[in-house]
Amino acid sequence: MISSSEVDEEAVSAVIGVILMVAITVAIAATVYVYISGSIGVQQTVPTVQMLAIENVDRLSILNTDTDLNWTAFALRSTAAVSIYINREADAGNCFNLTANQYHIFTMSDISSSSGIIHGSDFIDIEGTSSNLVDVTITVIHDDTDTTLETYTFSKIAQLI
Exposed, middle or buried by CB within 10 Å (0-12, 13-18, 19+), for 25? Predict the structure, then answer.
């Protein structure tokens, strides 16, 4: 015959086992939830910048942008060596030079406006560094998200004399 103390011990052991299994299941579920929610994270939005390529003056003109976009969040890449002037006429000096396929993130010293904010009237002038260039592709990149915003091909870019 089974004594009453043995019956109670078996019942306690079963309850403890169930509680432990529930606790382990909750811990695993919480770990999976934290892992999945951490992996998804906050996604950055890509800004909207509308540009117009004006080929006869080798210029990218900003038509419209999201508000408060800063030039320093953007980069350029060119398929040829060119000089880039932001909000400056090409003969005004203060440019930066890109070598072929160089990735250049804009800095405040590249920009003529003190705030660095992109406006609808801003522009990028492009000039050849060593000779007249043919079929030069300029790519505008949002550096924060590494997203290509626009790609323009100029059939001829003149050298600044």
Answer: exposed
Q: Tell me how far apart the 2 most distant CA atoms of the chain are, in Å.
A: 111
Unique residue bearing structure tokens 């299941």: 25
**CATH number belonging to domain 49-157:** 2.60.40
Question: What are 123-144's pLDDT values in tens digits?
Answer: 988 888 777 778 889 999 998 8
Separation CA 3–CA 60 (nearest Å) = 93
pLDDT tens digits, one per residue of 46-98 = 888 899 999 888 899 999 888 788 888 899 999 988 888 888 776 666 788 88
Query: 146: closest CA among 85, 77, 52?
Result: 77
Residue 134 β-bridge partners: 156
CA 98 to CA 76: how far, in whole Å?
Answer: 9
- Identify the CA nearest to 75 among candidates 135, 19, 141, 125: 141
